[in-house]
Design a protein that fits this description.
Blueprint lengths: L3 E2 L10 H7 L1 H4 L10 H21 L6 E4 L2 H15 L6 E5 L4 H11 L4 E5 L9 H7 L4 E5 L13 H10 L4 E4 L18 E5 L10 E5 L14 H4 L7 H16 L1 H22 L3 E3 L10 E6 L4 H10 L2 E2 L15 H5 L4 H5 L1 E5 L6 H20 L2 H8 L1
Parallel strand pairs: 1-11, 3-4, 3-5, 5-6, 6-7
Antiparallel strand pairs: 2-8, 7-8, 9-10, 10-12
Helix pairs in contact: 1-9, 3-9, 4-5, 10-14, 11-14
The structure holds pyridoxal-5'-phosphate.
Length: 390
Amino acid sequence: MKKIYFDNAATTRVKDKVVESMLPYFTEIYGNPSSVHGIGRDAKRALDTQRAAIAEMLGAKPREIFFTASGSEADNWAIKGVAGANAKKGKHIITSSIEHHAVLHTCKFLEGRGYEVTYLPVDSYGKVSVKDLEDAIRKDTILITIMHANNEIGTIQPIAEIGEIAKSKKIPFHTDAVQTVGTIPVNVNDLNVDMLSLSGHKIHAPKGIGVLYARSGRVGDNLLHGGAQESNKRAGTENIPYIVGLSTAMQMALENMELNTTRTKAMRDDIISFVMKNIDYVRLNGHPVDRLPGNVNISFEFVEGESLLLMLDMKGICASSGSACTSGSLDPSHVLLATGLTHEIAHGSVRFSLSDENTNEEVKYLKEVLPGILKTLRNISPLYNERKVR
Ligand SMILES: *Cc1c(COP(=O)(O)O)cnc(C)c1O
């Protein structure tokens, strides 16, 4: 059976052109960029070129780009680095309650080390209030970290506005832009951010490559110690093939962004309006407008999200019950709970995340099979049957 992949917020297929661009750097230009000989210098040249290209795509300078092994590493480094370097100034950090675990668990870790963290609430659409943020700032606040767009519900935060406030108070501001780079315009100056994390595998590059952007002078303590790579800030021989792949994927995403956004949004809105019109007891999670072009997140009452996923899988459709990191555990998503959902309704939530590789035919197929699956599941739900009688 042909698989239909609607789980692009978890990871994406690596594009053929991205693989092609990487191949020579495994077998021909395989040198260590720190070596003085020709093969090393060729690798160094590729590293410099791609660093400059990625910097330009983000509106940054090449020396502000630090390659990491993942988005999680970039988030960890941004937060622990600034926390460590500023511990004498203060120990207060502001974040939101709907961050990715790479940010949330890092903040929790720091709480155990004597830091104080304010977790800003969100409204029912998953938005942080700029006023709440302003009120949370203290004399000892040393870092604000708020994600650009949420991976589960797709809500886009007012990052430029928050950045304006952070700038006026001279507080370092980090954003996790893993879900937005390559999807919507991301420019570090327009967004007023000091630090930004991105990851390759969410934009059709391989898993295991990320970037921490850090405005000059803003990068904190090292996360890794050793060699002098990444301006002495992140040791480890550079992963040239993956860096090349990331750069290729970013370029492809930027070149096609307008077209991709239009196409993806149309498919997203098609699914949402179909479900709202044809299926009862449903709720759209996330913001109706300020939303990632490919994100659909819907709660189906009287249904277990996991059962729905399994039945979709049997029809060849890959979706997710929230974030890949929370499924596998029985705890409902912290993001959905933060938007005010009850545990029960949160458990019946499914995310379909689309990319430019999805097609209208795939959406049509989903619309054909979804109502039948829900009917089957709800027919065996005592609660649903009681509700219908009432
Ligand atoms: C996927 C994701 C991450 C983690 O990136 P990895 O490269 O998988 O470590 C961090 N933040 C968000 C918002 C994500 O979607």
